[in-house]
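RECORD TYPE: inverse folding
INPUT: structure tokens
STRUCTURE:
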């Protein structure tokens, strides 16, 4: 029972001390500033590297898209693609001089033959020139 008496005496002393502390008037500006600070501390801060990580991720996604789907060159249906320069006939000036020595008809035949190998025959203008 002695414990109850000690608790009640301690409670009375604390209440007496609390009554002597003056209560300041309510200040709404101070209250709002304190609440703002508490909320700022309670919110998890976004890391400073977050925007940089987002930009790097976007660049990687774009790089993957462009490497998996490269731009295809536009092919005209009238022009046959040339595989390489080596596949073109290598007619030299010397060869043409040899044909010219044979006559003008031989030169025209040689030019028509070279045109058939180089130019697509699907174009009407080329077809009319060759034939």
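DESIGNED SEQUENCE:
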């Amino acid at each position: 029972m002695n414990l109850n008496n000690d608790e009640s005496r301690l409670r009375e002393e604390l209440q007496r001390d609390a009554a002597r502390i003056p209560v300041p008037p309510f200040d709404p500006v101070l209250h709002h500033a304190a609440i703002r600070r508490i909320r700022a501390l309670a919110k998890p801060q976004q890391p400073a590297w977050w925007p940089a990580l987002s930009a790097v991720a976007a660049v990687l996604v774009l790089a993957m898209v462009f490497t998996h789907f490269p731009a295809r060159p536009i092919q005209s249906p009238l022009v046959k693609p040339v595989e390489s320069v080596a596949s073109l006939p290598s007619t030299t000036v010397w060869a043409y001089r040899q044909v010219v020595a044979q006559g003008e008809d031989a030169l025209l035949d040689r030019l028509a033959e070279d045109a058939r190998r180089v130019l697509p025959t699907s174009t009407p203008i080329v077809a009319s020139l060759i034939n």
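NOTES: Confidence is low (pLDDT under 50) at residues 84-88.
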